Amino acid sequence: MQKTDVLVLGAGIAGLTTAIKLAKARPDLKITVLTKTNENESNTAWAQAGVAAAWDKKHDSYKKHVEDTLDAGDGLCVEKIVEIVVHEGPERVQEIINWGARFDKKETTDQYDLGREGGHSENRILHYKDITGWEIQRTLLEELGRYPNIEFQEHYFAIDLLTQHHMGYTIIRVTPGIECYGAYVLDKRTGTIETFLAKITVLATGGTGQVYKNTTNPAIATGDGIAMAYRAKGRVENMEFVQFHPTSLYNPAGENPSFLISEAVRGFGAILRTRQGEEFMHKYDPRGSLAPRDIVARAIDREIKQRGEDCMYLDCTHLDKEGFIAHFPNIYKKCLSIGIDPMKDFIPVTPACHYMCGGVRTDEMGRSSIDRLYAAGECTCTGLHGANRLASNSLLEGLVFAHRIVEDIIPRIDQFQIQTNIPDWDARGTTDPDEMVLITQGIKELKETMSYYVGIVRSNVRLKRANDRLYLQYKEIEALYNTTTISPQLCELRNLITIAYLIVRSASMRMESRGLHYTTDYPEKKGYVDLSIL
Questions:
Q1: Helical segments of 74-182, H only
Q2: pLDDT digit string (tens) for 18-52?
Q3: Residue 388 φ then ψ, to 5°
Q4: Deepest of 24, 110, 198, 418, by most Cβ within 10 A of its Cβ?
Q5: pLDDT for 529 beyond 70
Q6: Is residue 105 pLDDT above 90, yes or no?
Q7: In the predicted model, what is the mean pLDDT of residues 69-85?
Q8: Exactly one of 293, 404, 462, 510 is catalytic; which is it?
């Protein structure tokens, strides 16, 4: 049994920023950060393009950034939250610059080289080449090392959040006063399950991309935080809005994760074309290749299906070679590695699961519906993204809400005591699994079900079929979970099934097409519709 003042689950931009700011504000607090792999592996580290902020006051403004975000969100953004994130964003970005983030600057001046992406009306993306997430992760880890009251532990996999349920009380989703006391955590190196107790717990566990066959997300993106919060009877919203990035690199050999061709490449001037060289995006949106992601992804999906092709193509052949290589060195290198020279050849691209716009519902201070449990980053539904995320708003959201969570924790934390009346994990009656193939095949089946039936275009028939298959998998895996010893693979599959169920259920409830959710049964958009999973 380990005790800490604040337990942070996750080590990306939201989790690390929260820990750093707490440690700086309250050196007397013990802050424990857990990551299920190593310190360099997070959704943040895989972000390519950058972080959006209304930085250039001469050409850009808060108003423009707000309007672009609301337009992309297709009527479901919470305008108050959008205003908060956009207005507070530049100050939060300046803080990580002060901590050492090296965003690219123009060669001739000391001004930042601001990029542009789909849905943005101005150049406002601060970036570090095409590995901005890696640079931010590096910066945060270096800053983290300055605070002795932060304990960073690798290879710890959170299994379940601790609530009154673990003290023998019956809790349902509408039970008032549910509290979080920490988490049961699997030490992957020893196979033992430890009890971490805390006054405050912060979920910063990242995304859900591995629920689909093709995804740009790292292997760790299995929706653990959302699944844990849902099992703890926390409020979850907008799970139907899964963002498919329009341009992952099509590789016939297959790879997981799919390699991302950043939206910034289109912002740099690349054009989407068919195999024959025909530009097609203006048929779907006057903004062409720089339309928001939901529109571009559906357009590419439609062109692929209508033409019977495996992919569409991104044309960079007309772009300045030196500038392209300087901005996108890793994309250039990756393309060359599979025999494609972007300066001579079209880059084959196809949509892939990229970002979850829904998640654990939080308020403007990052509080979840469970007391003493906060959440930040991609595992949340703050109201910023609505039905579709504007490119590069995610890193900004993580920074802003990490700061707000710290502001809310500081005056509250001293009123709480660590709850010690929590039993240790009970593994009696379980045995080692006889066949790992049950888990590996289960993951494969899940990914195929979601990809075939709950992708970019949906229908009632497809959703019903997905739900039926998921229910069978759920029963099988719950039986396995209750009778065998815990493994990371089993826990991840269990969480992915929960995430898949939430996506399907949410999609079934939304009887309209809006943003990232498009259904052939209800192709028209209705008025404002707010659907919540209580």
A1: 79-98, 132-144
A2: 999 999 999 999 999 999 988 777 777 777 779 99
A3: -170, 130
A4: 198
A5: no
A6: yes
A7: 97
A8: 293
Task: Using DSSP bridges, classify how beta strands 242-249 and 347-356 pair: parallel, antiparallel or unpaired.
Answer: antiparallel
Paired strand residues for 295: none
pLDDT digits over 241-269, tens only?
Answer: 999 999 999 988 888 899 999 888 998 99
Say whether domain 437-485+487-526 belongs to CATH 3.40.50.720. Answer: no
Is CATH 1.10.510.10 the right assignment for the domain spanning 248-351?
no
Which tokens hold the place of 296?
A: 């571009």
pTM above 0.70, yes or no: yes
Structure-block tokens of residue 378: 């991609």
293 is catalytic: yes
Determine the Cα–Cα distance for residues 115 and 118; give it in Å rounded to an integer: 11
pLDDT band at 527 (very low <50, low <70, confident <90, very high): low
Question: Strand pairing of 312-315 and 271-273?
Answer: antiparallel
Tell the CATH topology of 2-240+357-415.
FAD/NAD(P)-binding domain (3.50.50)
d(CA 523, CA 321): 42
Describe the strand order of the beta sheet including 271-273 as a list of residue ranges.
242-249, 347-356, 312-315, 271-273
Q: Cα separation of 388 and 176, whole Å?
A: 31
Secondary structure, 3-state, 305-345 = HHHCCCCEEEECCCCCHHHHHHHCHHHHHHHHHCCCCCCCC
CB 376 within 8 A of CB 405: yes
